[in-house]
Amino acid sequence: MPFVYTGKGRRQAQKDDAPPEQRLCAKQACAIQWCLAKRDHKEHLCKGAIDDWRSCVDKVRMAEAAKTERAEE
Length: 73
Hints:
This protein is mostly helical. 60% of the residues lie in helices and 8% in strands.
């Protein structure tokens, strides 16, 4: 079961009913948290990591929408 960073070094198992974009883009979300922590929470310095996460979320949502459309046919 994949783990999700929850802060202060604690790790928590990701829930099975988590949204697909949360499960599939966890690596990118952790990269954002790491970047922000290392750069004094200055968002503009982590734009690349944020853009990667948004791209991942968009891809997952498009794939889920395509699955839903196929299931309805």
